[in-house]
Amino acid sequence: QVQLVESGGGSVQDGGSLTLSCAASGTYSTPCIGWFREAPGKEREGVAGIGSDGTPSYADSVKGRFTISRDNAKNTLYLHMNILKPEDTAMYYCAVDALICDPLTVVDGPGDWGQGTQVTVSS
User: Fold this and answer.
1) Measuring CA to CA, how many Å separate 46 from each of 26, 93, 107, 123?
2) For 91, which of 2, 13, 75, 116 could close a Cys bridge (C-beta 3.0–4.6 Å)?
């Protein structure tokens, strides 16, 4: 069982930056760990993922603006978000077994994610 705790969300202006963190504890083995987001009235959207070989993948909507990284020593996953736009406003979740990395896809079924962290971008 894995426990995931997200942090780093907040409110920023259009064009701003934020870095989200996800601290993982417990044991897990997954072909893809990453981030998805949920906004009111919208479907869950995969944002970024890292495969077991370390290859990152991104949603087209965030390519060139977001970067996913992991620190294995700290068991922490990051999402560096630059040039934020109002349409990036959502609750962001770190997830295990809730995404396929190649291509980046949200999957239905059991998975683990944290409580989420809210990102709000104002114009």
Assistant:
1) 23, 10, 9, 23
2) 116
